[in-house]
Design brief:
alpha/beta; D-Maltodextrin-Binding Protein, domain 2; 279 residues; 13 strands; two-stranded antiparallel ribbon; eleven-stranded mixed sheet; single chain
Length: 279
């Protein structure tokens, strides 16, 4: 009798947990049920940006995700704009289904989110004043407390500064600032260098010529795979997005989108094809 009673108690105690697990809806289940993907996004011209007069969204990842939605017969809902320091938290806490504007792989982020297949790679180079020759021969000397690096909180410049130049001082700016503000810090002498992608620097240089220079005569200081951000523990959703991204890479759609927005040829490093045709 005691054995039967104990068994019944264990079964009753386990029922609520079992029922609760059965009611938790995965991202894949929600997306296929509602017919839409709710996107979080942050600004990075020309990868993703907003016209301040019309509020119209544009850029490489805007076009790419709209194409993803079309191929999957799902509506892309641009649900929430975020900053680089908070966009990962937004996905991790379920405020949107995925990060649909480009986000670079990093060890700090992968604890909380996963990533789609790389769409391209972005290099980071040091930028200094035009007349500054201190780092021309060896950028590694920046790893010293007397030198200051301008960074945006929570994005790739701050990750690289912390990992590659851990002894250097940093001048941090809130993540909602535009990348060009880092270059303004160097121009004003508030920082010795910043760590910038070529496209950001070339755009800045067009309207601010002969003030700064990019130390791109050697290998980049760091290079990051760039893709979308995905929630942890949802294999079906990951596979759906990644198969579609691979399709876009294979049929040349990604390359056409990059060429549409890539003003400077060295800005985005391409993903190498995983196969070889011919003999």
């Amino acid at each position: 009798m005691k054995t039967i009673l104990l068994t019944l108690i264990i079964m009753l105690l386990s029922l609520p947990a079992f029922a609760k697990d059965k009611t938790v809806e995965s991202t894949y289940e929600r997306v296929t049920r509602t017919g839409e993907i709710r996107c979080g996004y942050a600004m990075w011209t020309p990868v993703f940006y907003k016209d301040l007069e019309t509020n119209r969204l544009s850029g490489m990842f805007y076009d790419m995700m709209e194409e993803v939605g079309q191929r999957l017969d799902l509506k892309i809902v641009w649900a929430e704009e975020s900053g680089w320091g908070t966009i990962v938290e937004g996905l991790h806490t379920g405020r949107y289904d995925m990060i649909c504007s480009a986000i670079g792989y990093s060890s700090a982020r992968v604890k909380f989110i996963d990533f789609g297949l790389p769409v391209f790679y972005t290099p980071l180079y040091a930028v200094t004043k035009k007349e500054d020759t201190r780092f021309d021969q060896d950028i590694r000397i920046v790893d010293n407390p007397k030198y200051k690096i301008a960074v945006l909180d929570g994005e790739l410049s701050s990750v690289t500064a912390r990992q590659v130049f851990p002894k250097a001082s940093t001048v941090s700016m809130p993540q909602m600032n535009d990348y060009s503000m880092l270059l303004k810090e160097v121009e004003a002498g508030k920082a010795d260098i910043s760590l910038i992608e070529p496209s950001v620097f070339r755009n800045y240089e067009k309207t601010n010529p002969n003030l700064l220079k990019m130390l791109d005569h050697s290998a980049p200081i760091n290079i990051f795979p760039v893709s979308v951000g995905l929630p942890h523990n949802d294999l079906a959703f990951h596979r759906m997005i990644n198969v579609t991204l691979q399709e876009l890479l294979n049929d040349g759609s990604i390359e056409r989108i990059i060429q549409k927005y890539e003003e400077f040829p060295e800005a985005f490093v391409r993903v190498q094809k995983p196969y070889k045709t011919g003999r």
